[in-house]
Design goal:
It contains twelve helices and three strands. The protein is mainly alpha-helical and 301 residues long. The chain is elongated and about 75 Å long.
Length: 301
């Protein structure tokens, strides 16, 4: 019967060579096994990995639950243990997997943070308009919030995708699916100011000629930069919430729904295929989408 050390050494080689996992991933898996090893060493010193039973594992998982580890962390540890015992089965070190009947703890889906309308107003007002990036940042955040854009959709937005006379922008979302989203006068105004005051004075790199939001070198704005802009503004306003560019998108949808907007219209504007995994809704006409956003979006008042 092998010792913990010999089994763990073999498992490490398996993760590195067979699974081709990164150094960090391998260390995370081994750390979970070491937690079990320490527990077993404390309650049953002479039990090897191959002798661990379903009851041992249940007691171990109960203990990490009692010390207050959240469900997501418990599920991750159990996943690591399942991987270890799957390896021992492959090596014929055990005849039966003791993790087989253990269910993962239920993980409640954590809703992302939402900003209030007042917090978004404060962030926009906190933008330093004396800086060269001020007009861009104001136009960017207004557009992300007005249209519920993903960060990737924002940085890839093209000038030729702006249909201001019709009150829409064209966005390329996940899976290269295009959709038209209504855009309000506030965002249109700040995009126009940014184009006139900042963008037209920049030397633009060839591949970004049609990209709306540019960095100071005239190239496409990076996703990381958008994260930084939003996090810095939140910190400047004293907003304690954990936020990201997605927070603006989630706030867009939440504010519309809270004010009574039709869920199907909001889903259409977000570019989701269905309200739930089973209900596929019919394509809504664009006039209805525009009327919905004008009626319910707080910045259209």
């Amino acid at each position: 019967m092998g010792s913990w050390e010999s089994y763990i050494k073999g498992y490490k080689a398996y993760l590195q060579l067979e699974k081709s996992l990164s150094k960090n991933s391998v260390e995370a898996y081994l750390h979970d096994i070491e937690k079990l090893q320490h527990y077993i060493g404390f309650v049953a010193a002479d039990v090897s990995p191959a002798q661990v039973t379903n009851d041992h594992l249940k007691d171990f998982l109960n203990q990490i639950n009692e010390i207050g580890l959240e469900a997501r962390s418990q599920a991750r540890i159990l996943s690591g243990l399942k991987g270890f015992y799957k390896y021992l089965l492959l090596e014929n070190a055990i005849a039966k997997d003791p993790t087989e009947l253990i269910e993962s703890p239920k993980i409640g889906r954590k809703l992302p943070e939402t900003l209030t309308v007042e917090e978004i107003d404060r962030m926009i007002e906190a933008i330093d308009m004396s800086k060269p990036a001020g007009h861009r940042n104001k136009a960017l955040i207004e557009t992300m919030y007005a249209c519920g854009l993903r960060v990737s959709e924002s940085v890839n937005l093209r000038i030729t995708d702006l249909y201001f006379n019709e009150g829409f922008i064209r966005v390329t979302g996940k899976g290269d699916k295009e959709r038209l989203i209504p855009i309000g006068q506030s965002a249109i105004k700040f995009i126009a100011i940014y184009q006139e005051e900042t963008r037209r004075h920049q030397t633009v790199v060839k591949e970004a000629k049609d990209i709306l939001f540019l960095n100071k070198r005239g190239g496409k704005l990076s996703r990381v930069m958008v994260f930084k802009i939003i996090k810095d503004l939140a910190a400047k306003c004293g907003i304690q919430k954990t936020i990201s560019p997605h927070t603006l998108r989630h706030s867009f949808a939440t504010h519309l729904v809270e004010r009574g907007a039709d869920l199907r219209a909001v889903q259409e504007m977000l570019g989701h295929e269905s309200i739930t995994t089973t209900e596929i809704y019919t394509h809504l006409d664009r006039r209805y989408l525009r009327d919905t956003i004008i009626s319910y979006h707080p910045r259209y008042k």
